[in-house]
Amino acid sequence: MHKQSLILLTIAATLLSSLAIRADDPISERQDLMDGTRDALKAMVKMVRGEAEFDADTVTNSLNTMQNTAATAGDLFPPGSETGGDTEALPSIWSDREGFNQAMDHFAKAVDTALAANPQSVADLNPVLRGITKTCKGCHDDYRQEKDN
Prior knowledge:
The chain has helices at 2-23, 26-48, 56-72, 92-95, 97-117, 122-143. The chain is mostly helical. α3 runs antiparallel to α5. The chain is elongated.
């Protein structure tokens, strides 16, 4: 029993230290956040395209994920995080901070609108999802550079 406790304690300490390291790395944090947002968006797009059954709980969870991104992503672009970590962030985020902040606000409003609409069918989801994807595209066009893979 003591050996199992020691193993669990070691695992917990390792996880906590990796989270602490990650907390000091805004590039990794924002990449993780955006990856989660991408996955949430994909789940809803599949529903709209008929590639997955509509699921109101998945929609709500996806929109909550996006709402979290809207609330926290802007703070993950501090001065000094312009380069490194294989970032796709364009320098325009820092040179046009007001425009970037407005783009994030537009995203937040689109997500809030979608949450308030409480989509209960694909027909309900489609228009609010288009509003969200439009704000995503607008921000990505001006503030993100796709990396070649």
